[in-house]
Amino acid sequence: MDGPTSSGSPLLTTGERAKEDGGRKRSLKHKHKQKSSRHSTSGEEHEKPSSSKGHKDDGGASHLQDLLTSKIAQLQVGDSSLDVDISGIFSDSKLVDDASASWEAASKDGGDVGQLDYIVQGMLGHLALLQQKLSEVHAKYIVMREQKMALVESNLKVNSTKGKLESLCRELQKQNKTIISESRRIAEEEDRKRQQLSQQFQTTIEDVSKKMEQQGKDYVSSLHDNEALQGKLKTFLAQYELREEHYAHQLQAKDLAVQLADAKLQHQIELTKRETEKVALTLEQTKHISEREVALQCDQYDHGAIEMLQERGRVAEEAKKAQDKISKLEGLCRMLQAERNRLMEKTKETAPAS
């Protein structure tokens, strides 16, 4: 034991840290083994009915396995944070180099099996820690995958809502065009009615003028005739004055009717103009509200997607680093085990000879 203490101080530090964290790591490792055994047992139980039934329930079994994996990953993660604590993995950056140097030193000193076994045990402890962290990274990767699927489903809902809003805007634009065309038609119809009334008024005035002209001619003719019939003129003079008064009342009544029709026409034109302005204002407000809602939903979706991509990139980079470290340590462990076996065989061969 003096050899490892004097020659490999970094390995001793790692071993002491492993001993200090022994209870907690062994319990976590035991739980991880129990979960792995449960997974293997459940996998065997799923394989037996699938082999008897063929491939009928492949889709259901796959979906059930995905659900179980997701629930197990959520239980392993435990909290809402997706950061993996890897502070204890890379604390000793020269672990592999120091282990190789200690191994070479032990080999030169005669290949002490105890010292070599101590080095191998330290490396295996560090490898177990790496495997535990990799399991945590895998569990949190599964949780992030579920979150990604939820975000994709939310994205589909947002796109569906966006499509509905766009179709609603198109429908509103179509209704706007219909209302504008209807307003134009009503305005043209009112203009046509006004022209008809104006033409009727002009015709009435012309008729009255003709009648008055004819009456004037008749009056002159009457005067010439009445020169000989002055006696009769006095008799019919009162009747003629009454008839002229009656004609005056009729003309006044017609003038009042024409003025009333003109006032009604102006009032109807003003009402039509006000209704058209109200419809245009309502359509403009609806368009602004729809544009603000679409812009707000697009901003929320872009912000959430950017945060998800950044978090996914960080987790993928950490998982890649941990995988590279595990590969290097596995290669070194295989080399150390081969050297250990060779030294043990050499020791067994030299023992009978001595």
Automatic annotation (TrEMBL):
Residues 41-60 have a biased composition (Basic and acidic residues). It comes from the Eukaryota. Residues 1-12 have a biased composition (Polar residues). Residues 1-62 are annotated as: Disordered. GO terms for molecular function: syntaxin binding. Residues 172-200, 319-346 form a coiled coil. Keywords: Coiled coil. Residues 25-38 have a biased composition (Basic residues). PANTHER family: GH01188P (PTHR16127:SF13), TAXILIN (PTHR16127). Belongs to the taxilin family. This is Uncharacterized protein. It comes from Aphanomyces astaci. The lineage of its organism: Eukaryota, Sar, Stramenopiles, Oomycota, Saprolegniomycetes.
